[in-house]
Amino acid sequence: METAALMIRNIRLSYQDGMIVDDFSLSLKPQELGCLLGPSGCGKSTLLRAIAGFQELNSGEIWLDNALLSTARHRVVPELRGVGMVFQDIALFPHLTVAQNIAFGLTDWTEESQAKRIAELLELIDLAGLNQRYPHELSGGQQQRVALARAMAPKPKLLLLDEPFSGLDTELRGRLASEVRTILKSDGICSLLVTHDQREAFDFADRIAVMHDGHICQFDTPFNLYHEPMSPFVAHFVGPGEMIDARVEGPRSVSSPLGVLTNDATLDFPVGSDVQIFLRPDDLIHDDDSSYQATLVGKHFRGAHHLYEVKLDNGVVLGCFAPSHHNHAIGERIGVSLDIEHLVVFPK
Ligand code: ADP
Ligand code: MG
Q1: Ligand 1 mean position, distance from CA 334 (Å)
Q2: Model confidence over 161-194: pLDDT tens digits?
Q3: Which of 7, 32, 146 is nearest to 90 (CA)?
Q4: Among 45, 31, 50, 53, which residue's Cα sits nearest to residue 181?
Q5: Residue 62: which of 3, 1, 5 has the closest Cα?
Q6: Distance from the CA of 224 to the center of ligand 1, in angstroms?
Q7: How far apart (Å, rounded) are the C-alpha atoms in residues 193 and 53?
Q8: Contacts of 236 (CB under 8 A, 6+ apart)
Q9: What is the mean pLDDT of the chain?
Q10: Residue whose CA is closest, atom 23 of ligand 1?
Q11: What ligand 1 atom has the least distance to the C-alpha of 36?
Q12: DSSP code of 53?
């Protein structure tokens, strides 16, 4: 069996008013960066609290590095679990300097090893030289990196991050998620991030558990979630796209309002079945030279590219990415062509 750092086995969690998480299982490999991605209220924070030891289990087990941390009858106290936590509200101690904040969990360490660890972490979070600053003298992003360093300082076996970037502006959020990924990878810390933001999850995680109503819909790499979603919920949750009716015509082909589309492999549906296909904006390419014309009905500027909404002559509206300099006006007829190798097909 593959070794796991974190192993959650068949746990159930509830509050007085009902079950939040029923029969939930998840494992992370050593040094793996995982993510729980799901809409607000689906039970992500409750799960993190259970892993940190603040939440009772109704049944099941939580293991970390082959030590049993929680069952329904037994719970190792939070401070002895080797689990660090970072929350959304940064909660640095305002009256302590950056260095003192980071040293907070290192009281058992010698002064020399504390100083070494602080210097190493400041280097890692790219704040070397700012050790004597107070939190109010730092930007939001810098404060969040200090909070991270403070949680990493005692070398936890597992670091839990509960929406740590959601108080920051969008641009900074995307950047910090990948920065934090790099920092954790270079320190080799296994970590679990909770977020409702797909981009943040993609920037951060090796594998993402997409959650809905207390259960995991799919636990997979960002690439597979995007290109091979196993359910319409996952397909929609991890990125834009449209569902279109189609019918299976042959072992690898479907007929659709866009014509006959061919898959790179045999489809899992019998010939003749009614299905839905899910098309992402990257399946449709804006091509000025294409004879296939569609009407531009919506337009979202995304910096390097536009996300266009184009209406085909049969009434189907699809998303389509176009390079930023292709700046067409709404209502204009533009050329499009399909670029599909792999079809995402669901039963109808
Ligand atoms: P998420 O982090 O995914 O937004 P939570 O785990 O915070 O979701 O909450 C899951 C569900 O549990 C929600 O319906 C929420 O209202 C409920 N809940 C959270 N905390 C408590 C609590 N202390 N007492 C009762 N219900 C709670
Ligand atoms: Mg939450």
Answers
A1: 47
A2: 999 888 777 777 878 889 889 989 988 999 999 9
A3: 146
A4: 31
A5: 5
A6: 29
A7: 16
A8: none
A9: 93
A10: 15
A11: 3
A12: T
